[in-house]
Amino acid sequence: MHELVIMENILQIAVDFAQRNRAKEIHRIDLAVGTFSGIVPQYAESFFRMVAKGTIAENAVLQFDIAPAQFQCTECGTKTTFTSAADIIICKNCGSDRVRLLSGREFRVQSMEILEHTEGGSDSG
Amino acid sequence: MDNNIRVIEIKKSIYEDNDREAACLRERLREEKTFLLNLMSSPGSGKTSLIVRTIERLGAKRRIGVMEADIDSAVDAETVAAAGAKAVQLHTGGMCHLDAGMTGEGLAALGTAGLDLVILENVGNLVCPAEFDTGAFKNVMILSVPEGDDKPLKYPLMFSTVDCMIINKTDVLPYFDFDMEAAEKHAKALNPDIAIFAVSAKTGEGIEAWCDWLDREVTEWNG
Any idea what the Cα angle at residue B185 is, between residues B149 and A87, rounded to 5°? Predict the structure, then answer.
């Protein structure tokens, strides 16, 4: 629902780093999205297109890398990994549903591909 | 002029700036000995009524402030002020949640000097508020009986991030197919440490246990 705000954050992070690296254009932004982050890539993508219009990220491709979620059972301690938020979340060892989320909520800008701008000069060949 | 394609590492969380701001806010509130409670729920689940009951019960002992983040109207702030707490209405301009920056602005408008407890009534929504740290020390949500006992299954993030769930409107239990045990089981499956209180803000049933819990938390925070 607030993908718009989140996409503004991503754009800001991407443009900040791009400027520091004297980028002319951002080709691709790699995002790490936890299975339980609550982010829907297709909505995120459409909001990004809106906010990025007219910026150096306008044509950037968004690459969503979905990170699995890990839960730990509070009864037997076993860690179970899930790759879908629609899965039934129970411990794979003892079947208990009293499990604690360890990871899977993250949403990070991992890296990006930029077109670098190098000033022509006597040393540019 | 040369053009060169390069991949740069960033590894920065989308929530990093907000999380940092929230941590600063929490630190400042700890020094000021003001406990901040973030109260979340769907619209119409009884946040304002619960706040009024809480003020009635704890108001003599604690100096309470309330920040109302309803999208429009000043009705909620007026209701709360009438119950005897210091209140401000935050106008979020249609935002679906509050973040640490907006909470900080609200606290400045409220003026926290001398307040033991500030209750932030977040925007009525079970999705977005769960994703942003407001700087609160405890996060509490209300699930009201008419909403149904299956809500934890539909909004897992909200139920897994809060410290406490209040099941409100127990006075209408006879009229709804709400299974109290199922609601608790679903919530505990997502969040084994969650504290759960069943209350009726209308009749006052269960308010004492909730307020005792809150009062203990405030004491622990304020030292």
Answer: 90
